[in-house]
């Protein structure tokens, strides 16, 4: 896939590295807030390499380069990145640090942007470089920015209040809880760098990052309940100023580093997972306490108002997705629907359902073999028709003021019956999905302890999938939210050790992917809730399923389902019909009722 643009950009970067006296440079997908999804100005990896995934890193040396992605992107990276320019490397089998330790020239000076990497990452790379006599050097100016002539500016869109009627708890109460948390640790302040934490703490939202309603800003929260907000002045409206009140001091973003320097001699909490290395450097005179951002856990435990709002958002979103699936059942067998036109149609159905602010991520619309690319993003170059007698996977979600949704459905595009193999794989995925949905577990259980429940039926056939089973979800915030998740435990992987607590939202999304053929995923969102049990010794929890959209009947081999699994299916679809049917009419309503008929 030779691409002259990316060849030229790589050459320009290497010339800039030479001018800065560097032998190499590391380019992550990241911003100053360690965000998963970043603004256009921070899409350095995509600009340089063409890779459009949400997680990845490139390392550029003078005579070779490599791009590192995890199992979600092993197919996508080969479609988008020129293998003649970059070696493909799989994480966690090898890390950028390990690769540099093996390939950095003796005595090399490897550059990195301290505003884009965490301190633990920097320390790991420094250690890996030591045997080669090489060093890691923080750059004064990012060399990618130096050669990116038309790099977008940071967004100056106004930030907006998020009302207590939607948030459930006011900002003053949240800041008071953080102040109490700081007092328990004898700390004076906490640096809040993660954009969703800033948004949660101040009940503030924005439009600076596509698909995530946050505003570019930092906060320093103090032990007296006050806070300093560092944000571009152009983003501050009179409404926001009134919403924040006098206890939140608003300062320009440029004042952030000097303010950190002014904390010299104080005890300051900094989250090493959510704060870049440059923040630690700016706090060199302070006594730093490395601990998790105090907003992370309370943000993950949704209050009753947030839970109710999410259910309302899910009901509207479920109706939109159901209308789309009905439309697809009519149009797709004609062979005229493409991945792009399907994604656009789904977006339109969501717009029509009311108060959609954005999608929660770029819709994954994968026909046939493209569905096997876990985080596939359709483009004009890759756009495929939904061929009759094929599998189509669509993973999508919406951002509404009262909730963030995320749902995956896999459908069979008729006419005719699906092959036995496809039905077998789909049903094994369904069994795993039901196992998670029906799980009951004691207090203290973490996500990695549940993950096997979803995989067991695939494992029994020698199959698996290369992604987690569930991630946390925000409340009109990030669609991927920590600290909770359901996934294999892997070397202390973030979130797998977090116990699941009542009020947490998670996805339930096992899958199966046959390279070059098709992909299958079934995803609903669930809420951790307390579960009363006669004779239980201690507290127990289970899941309330929050997503209500029919699951594809044509792909189910009910001979593989147990009586309890059939009962779950029937109860789930009865609930779907009760919630969605009142919002539909005509042929869409008839289709829904047909899809929700009991199995067996």
From TrEMBL:
GO MF annotation list: metal ion binding; metalloaminopeptidase activity
Enzyme class: hydrolase
EC numbers on record: 3.4.11.9
Top-level lineage group: Bacteria
Domain Peptidase M24: start-end pairs: 310-530
Residue intervals of the Peptidase M24 C-terminal domain: 540-599
One Pfam family named in its UniProt record: Peptidase_M24_C
Annotated Creatinase N-terminal domain residues: 9-132
SUPFAM superfamilies to which the protein is assigned, alphabetical: Creatinase/aminopeptidase (SSF55920), Creatinase/prolidase N-terminal domain (SSF53092)
Keywords noted in UniProt: Aminopeptidase, Hydrolase, Metal-binding, Protease
InterPro entries according to UniProt: Creatin/AminoP/Spt16_N (IPR029149), Creatinase/aminopeptidase-like (IPR036005), Creatinase_N (IPR000587), Pept_M24 (IPR000994), Pept_M24B (IPR033740), Peptidase_M24_C (IPR032416), X-Pro_aminopeptidase_P (IPR050422)
Single GO cellular component term: cytoplasm
Family according to the record: Belongs to the peptidase M24B family.
Protein name, as recorded: Xaa-Pro aminopeptidase
Protein species of origin: Novosphingobium sediminicola
């Amino acid at each position: 896939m030779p691409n002259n643009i990316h060849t030229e950009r790589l050459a320009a970067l290497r010339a800039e590295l030479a001018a800065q006296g560097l032998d190499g440079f590391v380019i992550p997908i990241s911003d100053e807030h360690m965000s998963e999804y970043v603004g256009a100005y921070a899409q350095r990896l995509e600009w340089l390499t063409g890779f459009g995934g949400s997680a990845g890193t490139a390392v550029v040396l003078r005579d070779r380069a490599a791009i590192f992605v995890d199992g979600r992107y092993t197919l996508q990276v080969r479609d988008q990145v020129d293998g003649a320019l970059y070696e493909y490397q799989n994480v966690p089998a090898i890390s950028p640090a390990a690769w540099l330790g093996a390939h950095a020239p003796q005595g090399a000076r490897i550059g990195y942007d301290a505003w884009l990497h965490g301190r633990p990452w920097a320390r790991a790379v420094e250690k890996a470089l030591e045997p080669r006599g090489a060093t890691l050097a923080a750059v004064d100016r990012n060399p990618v920015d130096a050669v990116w002539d038309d790099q977008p500016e940071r967004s100056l869109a106004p930030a907006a209040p998020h009302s207590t009627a939607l948030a459930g708890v006011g900002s003053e109460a949240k800041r008071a809880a953080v102040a109490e948390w700081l007092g328990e640790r004898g700390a004076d302040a906490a640096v809040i760098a993660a954009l969703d934490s800033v948004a949660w703490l101040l009940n503030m939202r924005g439009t600076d990052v596509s698909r995530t309603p946050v505003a570019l800003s930092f906060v320093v929260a103090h032990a007296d309940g006050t806070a300093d907000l560092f944000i571009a002045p152009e983003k501050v409206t009179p409404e926001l100023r009134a919403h924040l009140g006098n206890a939140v001091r608003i300062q320009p973003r440029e004042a952030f580093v000097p303010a950190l320097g002014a904390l010299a001699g104080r005890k300051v909490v900094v989250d090493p997972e959510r704060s870049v290395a440059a923040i630690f450097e700016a706090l060199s005179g302070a006594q730093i306490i490395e601990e998790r951002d105090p907003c992370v856990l309370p943000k993950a435990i949704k209050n009753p108002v947030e839970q109710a709002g999410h259910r309302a958002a899910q009901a509207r979103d479920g109706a939109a997705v159901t209308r789309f699936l009905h439309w697809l059942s009519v149009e797709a067998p004609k062979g005229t629907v493409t991945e792009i036109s399907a994604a656009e149609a789904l977006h339109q159905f969501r717009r029509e359902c009311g108060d959609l602010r954005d999608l929660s991520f770029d819709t994954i619309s994968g026909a046939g073999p493209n569905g096997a690319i876990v985080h596939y993003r359709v483009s004009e170059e890759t756009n495929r028709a939904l061929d009759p007698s094929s599998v189509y996977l669509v993973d999508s979600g919406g951002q509404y003021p009262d909730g963030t949704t995320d749902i995956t459905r896999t459908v069979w595009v008729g006419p005719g019956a699906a092959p036995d193999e496809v039905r077998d794989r789909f049903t094994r995925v369904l069994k795993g999905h039901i196992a998670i949905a029906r799980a009951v577990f004691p207090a203290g259980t973490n996500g990695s302890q549940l993950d096997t429940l979803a995989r067991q039926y695939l494992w029994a056939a020698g199959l698996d999938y290369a992604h987690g089973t569930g991630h946390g979800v925000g409340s009109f915030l990030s669609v991927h939210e920590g600290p909770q998740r359901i996934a294999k435990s892997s070397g202390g992987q973030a979130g797998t050790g977090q116990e699941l607590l009542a009020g947490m939202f998670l996805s339930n999304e096992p899958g199966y992917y046959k390279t070059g053929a098709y992909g299958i995923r079934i995803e609903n969102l669930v809420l951790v809730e307390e579960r009363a049990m006669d004779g239980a010794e201690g507290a127990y929890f289970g899941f309330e399923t929050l997503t209500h959209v029919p699951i594809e009947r044509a792909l189910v081999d009910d001979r593989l389902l147990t009586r309890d699994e059939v009962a779950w299916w029937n109860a789930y679809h009865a609930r779907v019909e009760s919630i969605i049917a009142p919002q539909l009419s005509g042929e869409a309503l008839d289709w829904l009722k047909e899809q929700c008929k009991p199995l067996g």
